[in-house]
Amino acid sequence: MDFDLTPEQARFREDLRGFLDAEVPVEKQEVFGMLTEEQYQFGRGINRKLAERDWLAVGWPREHGGGGKGPIEQGILAEDLGYRRVPKSGFIGLGIVGPAIRVFGSPEQKEQYLPPIARGEVEYCQGFSEPNVGSDLASLELRAERRGDEYVLNGFKMFTSYAYHADYMYLLARTDTQAQKHRGISLFIADLKTPGISLQPLLYINGEMAAQTFFDDVHLPLSCLIGEENRGWYHAMTTLDYERSGLGIYGSVRRVFDDFVDFCQQPAPDGGRALAEHPLVRHQLAQHRLAMENWKLLCWKVAWWQSSGAVPNAEASVAFLYGTEQRFKFAEMAMEVLGPYATLRHGSPLAPLLGNIEGIHREAMHLHGAGTMEIHRNIIAQRGLGLPR
Predict the structure, then answer these.
(1) Counting Cβ atoms within 10 Å, is residue 38 exposed (0-12), middle (13-18) or buried (19+)?
(2) Looking at the predicted structure, is the pLDDT value of residue 3 above 80?
(3) Which three-class secondary structure state does DSSP give residue 130?
(4) According to the model, what pLDDT value does residue 134 have?
(5) Spatial distance between the Cα atoms of 368 and 133, rounded to a whole number of angstroms
(6) CA distances from 38 to 220, 327, 363 (A)
């Protein structure tokens, strides 16, 4: 495995950073734990500008609307968007839905769905979790009954992030109630304007508005089925590995860590010693710097696997699990070092680092996105180490 970029890849990173420096001023950057509507719309605007340069889906083939490069370039984009704290927009389409359609979609579906994603024109939400189904996703209950040339959906979805901004939902539903639970699930894309779909607000701890989604006799044409009927579980698990590489999350956390290091090196306002001059703080900063580098290499290992044509599975879970734990450990350490000031939110004139420490600590307590830590440990044990169930 080679972690060095080619001259062309290095040039792309340099051009991208120049674009982001010019287009994303500090006052427009997202603060952890706070994503306002204004910031979201700004992020969508940046995506459209990236698309004009063929950069938004830079790793996709040109026939799908992309930039004709590969996973390394897509990883460069994700890391730098995270590091510049560009407000999140479109990442479900780019990181999950697009790869699924490229692998399992029909030629007609590729033509219909991929170019609008690559142009930054549409937003997707993900419909996996349900009120009674979280980590045990194969036990989902949303029913999709085939009737002639369409499917009729009835049931619920829970924790639907970006539902109020989304045009489409990428979802799993049960199409065979008699099959074993993993083998009776299918993958669909549903237009959220379809009659029978309704949303109920659900506020997240990080300030974002999600939803509980209701399906009441929702009629979808057969063309909304992605891949094979009753093979949706396997299709979804394959493409989730693209989400779990985590370079975007790494970049955003690394930015806060670097800002925190700079903050600790500044003299105290009362003329006292800088925080970094305290031996314990210096030791903690060094430990977390090493951990950040490890996290970065694990993420890039996943991107390298993808660039070689492989589908990382256990490797993606290793990167995701390590990063989830490291984000939480860093957030706890920063809160302890800063003391009561760390609890101040964005907007307070006394909040360190614009309130990013309080925000990242709040977000870091979300330990089950894209699967709980226990689920990832099981994946590593069973698929990576070959241990029995």
Answers:
(1) exposed
(2) no
(3) strand
(4) 67
(5) 13
(6) 33, 26, 20
Tell me: pLDDT of 367 over 90.
Answer: no
Mean pLDDT of 85-113: 93
Is residue 63 within 8 Å of residue 21, measured between CB atoms? no
Instruction: Express each pLDDT in 31-84 by its tens digit.
Output: 998 888 899 999 999 999 999 999 999 999 999 999 999 999 999 999 999 999
Measured distance CA(186)–CA(205) in Å, rounded: 31
Residues 189 and 117: their CA atoms lie apart, in Å, by 13
Among 231, 221, 200, which Cα is nearest to 153's?
221
pTM: 0.91
H or E element, residue 107: helix 107-118
Phi, psi of 272 (to 5 degrees): -75, -175
Nearest Cα residue to 356 out of 132, 34, 125? 34
Strand, coil or helix: 29? coil
Tell me how long the chain is. 389
Token pair 């950040």: residue? 292
Is residue 233 within 8 Å of residue 183, measured between CB atoms?
yes
**Active-site residue among 243, 315, 358, 363?**
243
243 is catalytic: yes
Collect all residues with Cβ–Cβ distance below 8 Å to 238 and sequence separation of at least 6. 100, 103, 311
Place of tokens 């360190």: 352
> Percentage of the chain with pLDDT > 90?
69
Backbone angles phi, psi at 113, to 5 degrees: -95, -35
Please enumerate in sequence order all residues whose Cβ is within 8 A of that of 299, keeping only pairs 6 or more positions apart, or say none: 75, 79, 245, 246, 247, 250, 319, 323
